[in-house]
Amino acid sequence: MVKQTKVLLGCGQIEREGWYGVDIVDTPECDQVVDLDTEKWDLPSDHFTHIRAINVFEHLENPINFVEEVHRIGTDGAVVEVTGPHRSSQNWTDPTHKRLLGTGTFSNYFTEQGDFNFYSDAVFEVEDVKVIFKKHPYFPHNIVAEKVFNISTNVQKLFESTFMSRLIPAQDIYFQLRVKKSA
Fold first, then answer.
1. For residue 126, what pLDDT band results from cuts at 50, 70 and 90?
2. What SUPFAM superfamilies has UniProt attached to this entry (predicted)?
3. Sign (positive/negative) of CA torsion 97, 104, 62, 180?
4. Rounded CA gap, 164 and 21, in Å?
5. Is residue 48 a contact partner of residue 74, using CB atoms and an 8 Å limit?
């Protein structure tokens, strides 16, 4: 029986004190081996109050099933954090990446207002989205870019839809969602 109410999906070798570690690879940090591409995970329903998936989503064959399982294992109101490579990044060089993420990845598909919310019954509120830029001495402008392009949702969309995303590509994107189980 899982006692922790916080789960780290794709924990790998990440230090995770206080978190229940789940990964496809059995590492010392992993509490349970679960293939996150399977249809139903061997994790309890309506159990976790905080769910993190760091650099996992882009590796999945079936991202809709993943989101539905996150919704199933989360309690109503659970916080869900997802981080992965932004669509403007150069992360296509990783041969294990199947997709990159953009600002509309969750809001367009897994919210009540989403244009394509008919793909799934899983519903979330998008509480925060941050476009993350690489911090490196060769890219000092990225510090400013991250502040400017995260001023608002409209500025993020402008960044993604113009030449700016190719001129100053982001590295990652962060989402904070909240599970909605009641109407």
1. very high
2. S-adenosyl-L-methionine-dependent methyltransferases
3. positive
4. 38
5. yes
- Give how far Cα 80 sits from Cα of 39, 42, 46, 100, 154, Å: 19, 19, 13, 18, 23
- What one-letter code names the amino acid at 104? G
| 31, 132, 150, 153, 179 from 144: Cα distances, Å | 40, 11, 10, 17, 32
Q: Are 55 and 154 in contact (CB under 8 A)?
A: no
**CA count, 13 A, side-chain hemisphere, 173:** 29
Report field, pTM of the whole predicted structure over 0.90:
yes
Inter-residue contact 12 to 96 (CB < 8 Å): no
Token duo for residue 183: 């109407």
H-state helical runs in the chain: 63-73, 141-149, 153-161, 164-167
Length of the chain, in residues:
183
How far, in Å, CA of 145 to CA of 159, rounded?
10
**What residues does each domain of the chain span?**
6-132+171-180
- The reply to whether CATH 3.40.50.12280 applies to domain 6-132+171-180 is no
The residue ranking higher by pLDDT, 23 or 15, is 23
